[in-house]
Amino acid sequence: MTTTLYEQIRQFYDNSSELWEQIWGEHMHHGYYGRTGNHKIERRQAQINLIEELLSWADAPHPSNILDAGCGIGGSTLYLAKKYNAQAMGITLSPIQAARATERAQAANLDQTVRFQVTDAQQTPFEDNTFDWVWSLESGEHMPDKEQFLQECYRVLKPGGSLLFATWCHRPTNSLAGALTPKEQRHLEEIYRVYCLPYTISLPEYEEIAKNCGFRDLKSNDWSTAVAPFWDVVIDSAFEPQAFLGLARAGWGTVQAALSMGLMRQGYESGLIRFGLLYGVK
Predict the structure, then answer these.
(1) Are the CB atoms for 250 and 16 separated by under 8 Å?
(2) Where is the region SAM motif II (predicted)?
(3) CA atoms within 13 A on the CB side of 16
């Protein structure tokens, strides 16, 4: 990962994670609002529902050792470790996130089995064949080399281990819609700038990369409709008094991201932004 991008991502999450936890809680990802996206669900419950729906969709064997690649403040890591009585390792680029996740593990009496550290997910320090699962929930979009990231996921998985991956994508370009238009590219570039992303690719491209890495039993799905209401809910929450105060403390980068949330909503509405799922076995 390039030093400049590494620092941008680290700073973004160092500055914004405390505010996110205050307003939204421990889960730093989309919510699930039913397959048609029209279920009225409390925002934090919708985030838990997304985890459970992903687990149901993947139908993977229960793990004993999990790697959460892009763990935030440990929401999914702790949830999965408790659900499966498993060991887990969460990795993030943000020292503040790793420290907060460790505090939360201690508070949950899981610090003997769940650990967190600052690590580049494209080049981890773990041995080959270490984990039963690699769980990556909305971190792939930050990876400057998607192929290297999926190769690393494959490397650290035990034979028979599972990858469950959900990420921001752009629409497929191998259909009648064709290549991205200049207007679509400008829209994406603004999202990349605000949210510290190098670029996104389509779900079919991720499938091809995973296949070339050696993953088998591949399956994928597009849950854009099910998660799209998330951005309306986040925008509404930004008007709460607590959010105003938190934004003032978090700095311009976080303020800019909050002001740009409409870009994601518009992207889902137009079909440009997609929420892609990928599952494979080593």
Answers:
(1) yes
(2) 129-137
(3) 20
